[in-house]
Amino acid sequence: MSSTTGLAPTAPARAAGSAAAHVVVVGAGVTGLLTAVACARAGHRVTVLERGPLPNPDATSHDQHRAIRTLLPGDPGGTARRLDAHRHWQDLEALFGTPLYRRVGTLTAHPEGRLDELLAEADRAGVPVDLPAERELPPLGLPPGTVGVRERTGGVLLADRVLHAAARWLATRPGVVLRPHSTVRSVFTGSGRIVLDTGEVLRGDLALLAGGPWTRRLADSPVTLHRQTMLYLGRPAGDDRWDGAPAAGGLGREGRGWVLPPGVGTLLKLSSDTVCRPVADTDSSGEDQRPYLERLAVEGVLPDLDRYPVVGVRVCHYTADAATGGPLLTRVSPGLWTRAACGGSGFSTAPLVAERIAEAVKEAA
């Protein structure tokens, strides 16, 4: 088994005259749908299997918004890939004919003592940044000794809009078959054959398992299942400080909190890695969420949290690389790949995974 985390950014178009392959995608979250889009654009036949409706509101990817940022301090290769992902999102907006993200920037707390080094690194990478004045922002819980650096190329991906736009585009493409309510029972990892609950057997030239937490039972991947609790808030009455506010990360007393701003129909979302926990299964029905909400409250991600009306609470699950806690793309066999992804980084880099799979189809041909 081999693992790939350095993803090829762009797959060349299929050579004229080469035979179209058949790609089977299990899971219609952002990775599955964008992989189907990339393969369809390359001229391949695609079948998308989803255990629920398509898009599925229970999918890990299904949410109001996710952050997108480009600068990864100390990792120039990762920054280059994030910039390439940003270009992919612009291309997908043009392809789908609808806005997919809000270009409000992404502000991240960084140590004051490393500010000059960070600004120099951003300049070398071609990432435009600035230092917004405190009066330009709503109150944010920047940890002591840090400064907020805003990336102009960042912003907020409109997650649900992305899923619906991709599904609509795929539904119009010849050679693409969308199969909601199709539950996969098992996968033969050596051959890539896929068996549905009905007993039907499918086999493509390449299969991608991108079914989020449910992929674990289909293929042996070195991943850990996590559960996250998120809080959705309304604006305080008469408060316009969030108009055009950026996404913000590195917040709270441990610097692990995120706030995604409201806008174009989305709520303000508060989350923190401090309430992310490994679990054995995806059944959260008997779990008391109050301790996790109390932990979010005392983290200080929003210093004036008590002024925000609570609109909703969401519990979600995702799988991540057991070694790093980050996303993982694994080639299980020549014809079978799996994807584990988490949070905003997994969502925002999904176009790169899609292009890597399209490239793998070309290589196999």
UniProtKB/TrEMBL annotation:
InterPro entries: FAD-dep_OxRdtase, FAD/NAD-bd_sf, MTOX. The keyword Flavoprotein applies. Its cofactor is FAD. Pfam families: DAO. Its EC number is 1.-.-.-. Residues 22-359 form the FAD dependent oxidoreductase domain. GO terms for molecular function: oxidoreductase activity. This is NAD(P)/FAD-dependent oxidoreductase. Keywords: FAD, Flavoprotein, Oxidoreductase.
